[in-house]
Structures are given as C-alpha cells and as structure tokens.
Amino acid sequence: MRVCREMRKPLSGWEGSQPAMIDRDAVLNNAKYLRQVRPIDPEEITDYITGTPHPAVIREILREEAYALKIREQADGTFVPVSENPLERPSWQPEAFPQPYADTIEDLLIEQFGLQWAAGETGAGLRSAIRSLKSQYLEGDSVSYDYQTALGYAIYHLPTYYASIGYVLDDLAMNDWLSRSLRILDIGAGTGGPGLGIADYFPSDSIVEYHAVEPISAAGRVMDAFESELGKNVRVHRHQTTAETFTPECETFDLILFANVLSELTDPRAVIEQSLSWVANDGAVILTAPADKRTSIQLRTLERAVVETRDALSVYSPTIRLWPDAEPNDRGWSFDRRQPIQPPAVQRQLDTVSDTDRDTETDAPGDGTFVKTSVKFSYAILRPDGATRSDIRANSQRHAKMAKMNTHVTHRIDLIAVKLSENLTPTPQRADSANPLYKIGDGSQHVDHYAVLTVEDPLTSALERAAYGRILAFENVLCLWNDDEDAYNLVVDAESVVEILE
Question: Is 2's pLDDT higher than 50?
C-alpha cells in the first residue's frame, strides 16, 4: 500500500463537542477491520473511539484516507472496498462539455462582469484575451494570466481539453493498466480542464486522489470553482506552488500528468525527469500538448530526450519503438484527432454577440473565431517499467527499416509501422492530391514517412480504419522519395496489403 506522508492536523469534535483530539489511528484500524466484513458506517465507528466524536468527523477522516484504505463512499454514506479488478475501458466519446461545468463558467463570468458579460467592453476584453492566448501559444511566448485571461482560457480551451484527456487514458485502460483506485498528480493544473475529464472518466465505484499543482493564481481561482461539481470519490488536494518548486509528501503517484503545460515551463525536461522519481514503477507519466506544430514537436523532442537518458524508461504509446536498437530523430510532428465536441453556450454567446466594441477587422459576429470544437492533441505516455502498449516488434529478416529507407527507393517492400495521423489530405499544401495520406513511423525514422493510399479495397482498407497509434503491417508497398516534402512515400496500391496487427 502506498502511503501519503501528507501532514494532517488532528480533528477535534464536531462544532461544540468535546475538545479532545480524535485518535486518527483508531479510526483507521477500525475501518481496516470493518472493510473485510461489512460496509463501514461512520456512526458505528464513533462508538469505538474515545470521546465519541461526531460521525461527520469520522466520515471526513475516511474520505481523506480513502485511497490508502482502498474504499469508496456510497450514496447512503457508508464506505465499501474498491474492486481490485482493473478499470474496464469506458466508451469515452463526449459529444458535449457537461452542462454543470459550462454553468460554472457562466456563473463566474456573471459574478465578475454581470449578466451582459459577453457585450460591451467586458465582451471585447474577453475576446481580446482569447486572441492573445492563441497568438502567444503559436509564437511560443509565455502567457500571463490575470483573471480575465483565465476566464477567456476556460471559455475557449476547457471543453476540448476535457475531452482529450479521456482518449489518452483509454490507451492505458485498453490493456488493463488502470486500477479503480488511483493517486494522480496534475502538474500545472491550470483552470482544470483535464482534471474535470479525469473525474468523469473514472466511474463512481472508483476512488481518485487528485493532486493539483498550481500556484496561487487567477487560473487556480477558476479551478477552485469546479471542486463542488466533482463526485464524492474524487478527493482534491491543492498544492499552491510552481512545478519547479513542488516537492511531494506522498511516496509515489500512479499517474503524473503534464497537460498542455510543457510550453510554459522554463525547463520542462528537468521537471519531467524529476517527476520520474515520484511515479510508481507500474505507473505512467503522461505528456499532452496542443496539436499545433511548435508545441507538438516540443512534446516529441522532450519525450525522446528523456527516454534516451533512462535505460528502463519506455514510450508506452503512441510512438512505440518497433526496432529495439533505434530511436527516431525526424521532426516528430504527430497528433491524434477525435470527434468534435459541441461548443458550450458561453462560446457561442461570445462568438455571436454584435456590439460597437467588437473588432470587426479581425473577426465578425458568428464567424467561429471564439468557438473551439476540434479535439486534436499530441501526447506521450512514458512507463518506468519499460512496458509498451504492444509487444509487437519488427523483424530484420522480414521488415524494411525506416532508418535505411534510402536503400529501398523504387522497390517494393514489407514493413511494420505505427499509424501517426488521420488522413492529411486535402490540405492547402496538397490541394491537388485526392489520395489519402497518413503519417507512419517505426521508431527508427530520420525523416518523415507517409503511407499514400491509391487503391481502397478490402486488402488495403485497414490503413484507413486503424485508429491513431495502432501498429500496421504493410506488404508489397512501393517506396518513393518525395522531393517536395523531403519525405518518403510508401505507396499502397492494388498490389499491396495492409493489416492491423494489434
């Protein structure tokens, strides 16, 4: 059992009861015994504790120690053991940002700016804040959060960040790597989008001890507003400090999350490497970033730099190294894309309002500037125990290696590779091309490789059907060099076969 060394103040009796301090160890010992025989009732335990403390005090202690005791609270106020069975993979496909969370954002806006928050100077200020956020991310500038900026961030980013974290967790749940009792550390928790996704991802029969690292800030003020919306079995611990100065009081965490924060850290590699000493050996460190070119490449560069210096550390997903003796050094721009999420009313309201303060030269009412529905994200899951989502590996007797692809140009070859994009055509750069194009990699590539689907039939349809990050076998594909893209094209035609190996 992993123990949290967090120091807690002794609890006294409930409102006006006896001043004697509660014997916390006695509460825990009683709970450990009862969990083996029947549901734990705080009213029952109070009879066994010196001073007969109020049951509400006992209940709060049990909530605080739920992860250590591996218990969860039921609707009737009793506690039962959390199942030891791994978490079943849920059907995580949110169609919309949950209304209670959207209502919380609107409540904050009304509280700060009044009922007409989207109009006049306040609406113009929020739109300006969102425009600045978007440009600062694209240009790699640091973002300074006042309360107006934090609210703009919540309006624009929370729904898609909420959605994306669940898809990343699916990669772990797929192989039964997620238990029903987890201690999670979210470094740079911000306004709370990924934290809300985590809370909704895990079912009510789980227990999640969620530690959020976020200094006293406007972003943390927004995140605090959501805490009352979380279920009884999500225990939130706020650590009001920076990622660089945080020191945990718990021995280990099951998951450590860096969600959309890497580009804002002064030395992200150092913080990631430090966090590796805090994660359980069978746990994982998760990195996520927006899908734009700069932040996506930064994430992949950090992934590679950290893994190359740690022998036991592996990339669990998605960029699995299919050749054990190789590491990729292409540019690494790769991202997943999932079903769009419906925009909450606060986005539509800010986007469609028409007033004299609106900057009509940069955006017009209803043009979608302040509506974000696209769920696109880059991610990496790192495992200290060397595990990967699949044990499938390339065979030098059967498969061409991307690191040596220059020797195969104009030849037909067999290879295995990970699918690293959805269809990339058409784009402004390839508007004249109708052939579906997919980025692929085998973990040895030095430049970009693309699978070009020229014939869609039952023998090649797996290329289109396969989900992002899945391993594919390619048979009899034609290798060509693309001067325009400085990349290799693996042409999948009528003579080719593509198979999903996982």
Answer: no
- Superfamily, domain 402-500: Nucleic acid-binding proteins (2.40.50.140)
pLDDT at 429 over 60: no
Averaged pLDDT score across all residues of the chain? 90
Decide if pLDDT at 144 tops 90.
Answer: no
State the helix-helix crossing angle for 345-352 and 99-113, rounded to 10 degrees. 50
- The residue whose two tokens read 């992949």 is 300
DSSP 8-state class, residue 402: G
Distance CA 54, CA 63 (A): 15
In CATH terms, the fold of domain 99-383 is Rossmann fold (3.40.50)
Q: In the numeric block, which tokens belong to residue 36?
A: 């083996």
Q: Tokens 């611990």 — which residue?
A: 237
Q: So what's the pLDDT on residue 413?
A: 98
**Residue that wins the pLDDT comparison between 198 and 428:** 198
CA dist 311 and 206 (Å) reads 33
Give the closest residue to 96 by CA, choosing from 160, 190, 152. Answer: 160
**Residues 255/286, Cβ–Cβ less than 8 Å:** yes
Residue 384 corresponds to which amino acid? P
What are the DSSP calls for 26-53, one per residue? HHHHHHHHHTTTS-B-HHHHHTTSTT--
Q: What pTM did the predictor assign?
A: 0.91
CA distance 407 to 271: 40
